[in-house]
Amino acid sequence: MTVPVRLGLRPNAAQFSLLVALNALVGALVGLERSVLPLIGTRDFHLTSHAAILAFVVAFGAAKALTNLTAGALADRAGRKRLLVTGWLFALPVPVLIAVAPSWWVIVVANLLLGANQGLAWSMTVLMKIDLAGPDRRGLALGLNESAGYLGLAATAFASGALAASVAPRTVVWVGALVIALVGTLVAIVFVRDTGGHVIHEQRGRGERAALPFRTAFAEGTLRDPVLRACSQAGLVNNLNDALAWGLAPLYLAAHGAGAARIGAVAAVYPAVWGLLQLGTGWLSDRRGRKPLIALGMLVQAGALALLVAGGGAFVSALAAAALLGLGTALVYPTLIAAVSDVVEPRDRATIVGVYRFWRDAGFVAGALLVGFAADALGSAESIAIVAGLTGVSGLLVAATPWTSVEPMSGIANLVLADGRPRRRLGETKGGTMRAIECPCGHHLEGADDDELFRLAREHVDRDHPEMQRTDEELRKRVADDAYDLISAR
User: Which of 144, 186, 206, 403 has its CA 20 to 30 A from that of 480?
Assistant: First the structure.
């Protein structure tokens, strides 16, 4: 018997709760490294260069960013669950590599695999929760998702820091990673159900055009669309901060006399505050809109980093800075993904969210490179101050961006710019007119102009009608003769 598809948190409570728990494991896996891995680099492998130590963050961020992009593009074709399981399979070799690593480059390779795990597993739990929740409570759903992930991260960051005072830090990391990877893989394979049917259900009534081509989606998410552009840059800077908190902050505190337990406490406070407060900030963004929370959150993060520098590495000021950084990140993190999801149609969601998450997690790479080389050249405090300035500028850019407005308590029903003008759909020309054409097989294609229609027609013919063997000239003539204007009703 087929179970009818329904959107919303209550009808999908069991599967949604399972995905929340699974994301806690995703976060816990990376949390094992947060407080101790930089110390392993200095103590076990005798590294002295900040840039060399932070190579593991570069590897993690690059792998995670690229798998985010790949996961978004493949999610509808390969299926959410299949990519989720693949992500957990990438995690299985990580504890083995950390346990037997004879040199630091093996730790870097392990973090390439960890980044692939996080990119696939976290991306799919995000998308699947968006699919299940529907549009009205998307912010709350993402708040629950991110809260679970970062509370899991905080718990293992604190535990690994505490245990590292009496147990070899590398042993703490690889044993914990092995347990989490095995449990996560088992749960993903046995209990999770795919949510592709929920995407189809939500898309009904919105037209039958094909999803945006990847190149168009990447351009929209990176530059063309003002809201998506603002979200992508803010996400990148947010994770630039996170790279600093992960890779440089433990070394900065250790240089000022902090032991492993105190470093673990600071490393845990930041994601713990972040994780707890996301339960409320996601819900709040559904009621009050996305832009105010994002802009404020970036400015709060800038203030937190300034406090860390002003405190000179003292434990109390570092704890306060970590809590403030957690508050700023809680305002930003679930709200950014909800904002991205607001402005795209369900059929384009996976690809556009993948583009956003690519730029966001590219912040790990940019952050590790920036703070690593800046710390070697200028000093750790100066490096942190530079990142604080960049974060403040990012918040001001968000504040200056024309944004969509959301009526409180009504969900994301009508998207309009702040000045009241209707917001264009992704792929539309600025005049609101799109071009469309019908294939004799019944397939409907839409594009911003005839050039895009030609590209879509070329892809469609090559994929679905290889026997036709149409030349480019013949297809362009067909588009010129038969394409028509499609005026958006929005």
Answer: 206
